[in-house]
Amino acid sequence: MPAAAADEIRGTTPGTAPVPLSVLDLVTVGAGRTASDALRTSVDIARLAESRGFHRYWVAEHHSMPGVASSSPAVILAHLAAHTERIRLGSGGVMLPNHAPLVIAEQFGTLEAMAPGRIDLGLGRAPAPTAPRRPPCAAATG
C-alpha cells in the first residue's frame, strides 16, 4: 500500500509497518522527576511516534499512583494535540465510574473540534480508585 494512501484503519499517517502501530503512554514519573517532566517527555514521545509513522498515541487513565501522571486523559490529549500535527490521539480507557458521562462526551467533542479527525475515545468501567475519597460536600464543610 503506498504511504500516501488512506484507508479506514491506517488513516493518512505515513508508515511502513504491515499493521498500524500505536503507543500507549501512562505518563510515568521517573525517580527524581516531576509530573511536569513526565508531560514534557510525553510530548517528545508523541512527536517521535508521529515522525516515525505510528498510527495512534494512547493515553491511559490512572489515579492515586505517585509514579503516573495520567489522571486526566482529556487534558493531556489537548496538550499533545497542540504539539503534534497528524497522529491520532486517544484515551486508552476513560473510566466512566470516575466521571459523569456527559462531561466526558463534551470534553471529547471539544477535543475533536480542536483536532478534527484525530481524537479517539476509549471507555472503561473499572472500579473507582481504592484510595479514600472525601465526598464533594466534605471539602466545603471541612
TrEMBL record:
GO MF annotations in UniProt: oxidoreductase activity, acting on paired donors, with incorporation or reduction of molecular oxygen
GO cellular component: a single term: cytosol
SUPFAM superfamilies, sorted: Bacterial luciferase-like
Signal peptide: none
Residues of the Luciferase-like domain: 22-130
Family, as annotated: To bacterial alkanal monooxygenase alpha and beta chains.
NCBIfam families reported in the protein's UniProt record: oxido_grp_1
Name of the featured protein: Luciferase-like domain-containing protein
Organism: Streptomyces haneummycinicus
